[in-house]
Every structure is written in structure tokens, then in C-alpha cells.
């Protein structure tokens, strides 16, 4: 299983160092991907712009939106152009994780109907496929041909249907290894039934905080970001890995569950967190 690291684009107080310096360190450390989290009504760095900045200072590491809230990008042709441009400029490193999201305030701020987001997303996936394939005159073409790598957020039946028809697999955030193990057989069966070649990718997301202030970092960041969930936010805070042993246990658990990649998202914006995570994972270089 590959191990990626999130950019702290949603961590309060993030600045240039938390994107540019962080990206350089992550690539040097051997992480497989840089991930971003998408929100609108929050004081975070926008994910495509953050990944463009990271792309400019790296050469090999993948650039993964985990996830981009596609229906908020109402101009689908422009979204196709933006993502194809990033994919082309980065040499084909974009992995476009997309879903609909669950925060109504993001849609209200956009003047969009929250209740229609699933239907809009289905239409977008079809349109994006056509734009990237060169059927509409919207360019450039993605670096490796017909589209960037696409992952659909979620592990339910609808997400699997979308992944099989339009994507390369699933990304499942905030779920334990057991959820990955449960989704994998259904995804694989649907993939084979549709006559898709190869095997689908399955990416997991988890949080970490390392160092002497790990507990407080997790509480400050995740408590703020997920505060709208009430008591459930406490479960997310408690679930963040806060020491090297727990990080390694998470890696072992998701590996055993069959995930292809685990992206560990930080709860602090200090680029030293990249080094702390790398030190906890000697297999990065091995």
C-alpha cells in the first residue's frame, strides 16, 4: 500500500510554507501523494490552486483532491479546463477525487440547490468525460489522454456506480479499515460486471497529529472543522493518530483491508509535521 500525505490547506493559520515548503518536503520524504480537502464556506486555501502551487515545486508526487466538491463548480466546462490544465502542467500527476459534500452552507453561498447536488454531479461526470475526450473543443487534453485519474468519494452503491462508469475507483474518507474491506468486494464485482479492465483503486483518508502538542493540535483543527457535527466531532478528534505507533497501526490496518493508498492528513500547518510523519514510517524509503 502506498502512503500519501495531506496538505494542510484547511488547517487554520496555513500560509505559503504550509503548501510550498510542505510539498517539497513531502516529495523528498517519499510520500506517494499530496492531498487536499475541499470546502467553500471555510477559511481554507482552495484545493486546485493549492495543488497548482505544489505542482510548481515538485516533479514526481501525485496531486490528489480528496475531495473536490464538484457541484459547487457550476461551470463544468471551466472545471474541465482547469483540471486538464493542472494535469498537463504537472505531467499527468493529478488525481481528481470528487463528490457532492454534505454541507448545505457551501451550496447556499454558491446560490445552488443543495437537494439537487447528486443529480448535478451525475450530469457533470458525463460532461467532464466529453470535455476531456476532446468532443467539445474545451482543452487542453489531459496529459495521458482522455482524462485525469478520477476517484469518486464514498463507499455506497451510488458511489460505486459512478466510479465504475466514470472513474478509476473510490476514495473513502474518515472511515475505519473495516469500511474499506466492506466496500472492496462490491466495487470489484461491479467493476468486473461492467467489463472494466484491470482493477479499481481504493484510497483511504485518515488524520494525524505528531509531536508534544499532538492532542491539542487535533482538537483545535478537527474540532473547528467538524464542530457542526456536535458529539461526532469528538469521535473524529479521538480517531486521529497522535503517536508513531498509532500511525503504523493505521497503515497496517488499511493495508490488511485492501486499500491501495492511505493519505494521512495533518492537523497542523508546520512543515515539520512532514518530517515527523516520515520518521514514523521507515517503509517510505524501503
TrEMBL record:
Residues 5-232 form the Luciferase-like domain. Pfam families: Bac_luciferase. It comes from the Bacteria. Keywords: Flavoprotein, FMN, Monooxygenase, Oxidoreductase. InterPro entries: Luciferase-like_dom, Luciferase-like_sf, SsuD_RutA_monooxygenase. The keyword Oxidoreductase applies. PANTHER family: ALKANESULFONATE MONOOXYGENASE, ALKANESULFONATE MONOOXYGENASE-RELATED. This is LLM class flavin-dependent oxidoreductase.
